[in-house]
Each structure stands twice: as C-alpha cells, then as structure tokens.
Design brief:
It is a multi-pass membrane protein. This is Amino acid transporter transmembrane domain-containing protein. Its main location: membrane. By secondary structure, this protein is mainly α. The protein has one domain: Amino acid/polyamine transporter I, CATH 1.20.1740. It has 20 helices and 2 strands. Strands 1-2 form a two-stranded antiparallel ribbon. Strand 1 and strand 2 form a beta hairpin. Helix 5 runs antiparallel to helix 18, helix 8 packs antiparallel against helix 13 and helix 10 crosses helix 20. The protein starts with 6 loop residues before the first helix and ends in a 6-residue tail after the last helix.
Length: 488
C-alpha cells in the first residue's frame, strides 16, 4: 500500500493524539504550580516529549526499510526478550485512556440531552466502531480535523471568556489576590500536577504509523511534523492553562468546564464539542492498542511456537524464527558500503541501494545465533501482520471489554493517574531513550565508521531520557498513591 499522508494531515493526527480531554486539566496545574513554574513545566514537558519523538524517528532510520518501523520492530531489534513488556506498556496506556474516554462520554452527554449514562456510552458505538475498523491512520485525518475544530472552539471560548471578563474589570480581585505569579502555591500539588502535564503530551503511540504513511518520510520532514505538532500543542496548553487559571484563580477545578455557568448556551456547545472530541479521539488510541495486542500474540507464537506451520505462511515464518534474535541490518556487498556511510537521515533515499533484496517486499531480517539471516514478513501497515481474521476478533474483544468496563466503572480518576504515571512515561521517555541509546549511530558502526559527534550527542540525550522517564514514573506513582491533593 503506497504511503499517502501529507505533512499537514500528519500534523493534524499527531496534534489530535497529543491534545485530548487532559487539556482541560492544565489550568488546575497552574493553580498548584503558579504562573511562572507552570509555564516552565509545560516548556520542560514540551522539550522532553519532543525529544522522545525525535529519538524514535531517528531509530526508525536504522532499519533496512524505515517504513517498517514500529515499537515491535525496534523492540525485536534491541531487546527482543523484553518485547512483550514494552507492548504491555502501550496496552496499559491506550486501553486506560480509551476506557476513561468512554466513561467521560457517559458523564457528559446525559447533562446535554438527557437519558441514561449507559445509553450514551452504548450509542457512541455508532461512530466509534466504524472508525475503529479503519486500517490506516491517515484515513482518520478527517475525524482528526473535526476533533481539532471542536478543541479550537473550546480553546477560543476559554480565551474569549477571559478577555471579556478582563475588559469588564471582573477579574481585578482574582488577579490581585488569588494568582500566584512567581511562587509555588502547593508543593504537593506541583508534584501531582506535573504528571498531568506529562500525560497531556503523550503522542508517541501514533508516531510510527505517521512516519510509515508519510509520502516524504525523510528525517527533515518528520522533524518538521514533530516540531509543528509540539509547538501547536504547547501554544494551546499555555493558552487554555493561563486563561483558565487567571479567570478563576484558586477556584479552578480539575475539569475547567465545571467552572463555567452550566446554563450558558456557549457552555452547552462547548460540552458538546468536548464529547465529540472524545469520540473522535478514541480511534486514534485504539489503532496502537490493537497493534500492541497483536504484537504480544506474535511474540508468544515466536517464543512458544504454538502456531501450526501449515496454517498460515506468515505465522509460520515467525514461528520458525523463534530462536533467532534479533532483527538486524546486514551489509553483504562491500561495494555498497558507501550507501550506508551516509547520515541516517538519508536512509529513505538510499534504501533501494542496499543489497538484501527485501526492502520493498514487506519483510525484516532476523539474524540467528549461527550468523545466518532470514526474512520475516511485515504487512502493508508496517507492523506484525494481522493474519486471517485476527484484525477483527482483536477489535471485537477489545471493544467489548472496554465498553463492558465503561458501563460499570463510575470513576476512573485513580486508574487514569496510574496509567499516566506508568504507560505515558514508558512510551514517551523510557522506551525512546532505550532504543536511541542502542540504535543511534549503529548505521556508522555497521560499516566500520566512527559515530558522528551529532549522533553521540543524541545517544547521550537518549540515556538522559531513560533516567528522566524512570524518575518521573516513580515520582508520579508515589504522589498519585500517597500525596494526591484531595480536591484533584
């Protein structure tokens, strides 16, 4: 399947993946952090999250065919025995956030149109199921654009409400007495709300599909998409966070929409936009969730060899490779070495020069302990294949389990915090750092070249990203379990 995504559609999908309902909790973080520290923490989260995305994209260029990049292929290339743990982190993240979206849908729509909570959760299947059956991320660009319009309305409402109240002099007392401009209002609250900001920037689950589907997936174009997505998200977070906090001060709630007059027609429209955004965001989380579940199944088949070799050619290839680790780059023809000696950013232009003959046939190479290699297929969506009807039964099982839980769970706040502390930090910082430290510069070493200074710098940044991710994870878990603010 030919890549069709433009830079603009990729930016729309990545921004929509990053920016979700958690945006409305950003003003609450300013309440605890104060204006100056809140801005600095958002900028810190933006830089580190952007670095994580950049490192992952650099790692994709170490593959023979960069369009085969995924968490699965990088895990099998670097830490094959830990591949299921990495995929489980993705499953926890996407399943938990998707479930929270369904719970919020059930809480939101009854207040707008009446009816029972469970009725609206079930009714959302009319939109969610068809979108979840889409196989390419780029096919969700129109729903992402609609979601961005909904988010734009909410952001403009918050901004215009602040400007209107400021112009009428209604905020004089709040700005003079309630706002902490330079100091931290609540140390415990700062530790807790930092995880909210980190969680808000999570977008790496859809980075690889975006890279694989870009028409021009050069490193320069990928960097352009990442930088624009992070910049737009940061502008939106700062606008909503500052305007919300400066409007309500110490009365700012964890969900900013609760601070406004519920009878206002503008708030009704805003809540409808929020509900629409949740529904349209769900498929963007479901795509990587389904892929991660399939990856775990494939890993089990590789490890334990449970598949019937006569049942499916693709599965049998994986099963026969159960003792072959890891996926690797190979250079068999010395006359081709110069093609690899170029910077990793040009791999997409050089890959057809490589001698292995498996660059365009949807396969990756696995190297055995004896030094031999074999090709293992990767399907047209650039991940482990959904053999036979597996795509549909995984979709069915996941949706049924998520909807069943959503109908019975009333409050998902604690679980969502735990998901953010573990899943978000793992796939945003720890995993990119581990991959980057092991892979960046490997293209130079493969041909006997010294690692360029720039790549050595990126490797050090990757190692720092690992320690940063682990520190944020343990700190967030501690705060969530023992020191969460009572009114969060």
């Amino acid at each position: 399947m030919e890549p069709t995504a433009s830079a603009l559609s990729s930016i729309a999908n990545l921004v929509k993946t990053i920016v979700g309902a958690g945006t409305l909790a950003i003003p609450y973080s300013f309440k605890s952090d104060g204006v100056l520290i809140g801005i600095l923490l958002i900028l810190l989260a933006a830089v580190t999250s952007g670095l994580g995305l950049f490192v992952l994209s650099k790692c994709s260029k170490t593959l023979i065919n960069p369009r085969n990049s995924s968490f699965f292929t990088l895990c099998m290339l670097t830490y094959p025995t830990l591949a299921p743990i990495f995929d489980l982190a993705m499953i926890v993240q996407c399943f938990g956030v998707g479930l929270s979206y369904l719970v919020l849908i059930g809480d939101l729509f009854p207040g707008l149109f009446g009816g029972e909570r469970n009725y609206w959760i079930i009714a959302s299947t009319a939109v969610i199921i068809p979108l979840c059956l889409v196989k390419k991320l780029d096919q969700l660009k129109y729903s992402s654009i609609l979601g961005l319009f909904a988010l734009a309305y909410i952001s403009l409402f918050i901004f215009s409400h602040f400007v209107f109240d400021l112009g009428k002099g209604k905020l004089t007392d709040v700005l003079e007495n309630d706002i902490c401009w330079w100091k931290i209002h609540d140390i415990k609250g700062l530790l807790s709300t930092f995880s909210i900001i980190i969680f808000a920037y999570t977008g790496s689950m859809n980075l690889f599909p975006m890279i694989n589907e870009l028409k021009d997936n050069s490193m320069e174009n990928i960097t352009l998409v990442i930088n624009n997505s992070i910049t737009l998200s940061t502008i939106l977070f700062l606008t909503v966070g500052l305007c919300g906090y400066l409007t309500f001060g110490n009365k700012t709630s964890g969900n900013l929409m609760l601070n406004y007059d519920p009878n206002s027609i503008w708030i009704v429209i805003g809540k409808f936009c929020l509900g629409s955004m949740l529904i349209l965001s769900f498929p963007l989380l479901f795509q990587p969730l389904r892929v991660a579940v399939n990856n775990v199944i494939i890993w089990l088949e590789i490890t334990f060899g449970n598949a019937d070799p006569n049942e499916d050619t693709q599965v049998s290839e994986y099963t026969r490779a159960s003792n072959l680790r890891p996926i690797s780059m190979t250079v068999d023809d010395p006359t081709q070495s110069n093609a690899l000696a170029t910077d990793a950013t040009s791999y997409d232009e050089q890959d057809r020069l490589l001698p292995n003959g498996n660059l365009d046939n949807g396969s990756i190479e696995i190297q055995g302990h004896d030094g031999g290699t074999m090709a293992v297929p990767v399907d047209n969506e650039h991940h482990a294949p959904f053999v036979k009807s597996r795509f549909y039964w995984i979709t069915a099982v996941l949706l049924i389990s998520m909807y069943t839980l959503a109908l019975s769970v009333q409050s998902f706040a604690l679980v969502l915090s735990l998901v953010g502390a573990t899943g978000s930090t793992s796939i945003s910082f720890t995993l990119p750092g581990l991959f980057g430290y092991k892979l960046i510069g490997s293209d130079s070493l493969a041909v006997g070249k010294m690692i360029p200074p720039r790549d050595r710098f990126y490797k050090r940044c990757s190692l720092l990203l690992v320690f940063y991710g682990l520190s944020v994870m343990f700190l967030s878990l501690y705060v969530t379990l023992f020191n969460a603010p009572d009114n969060a």
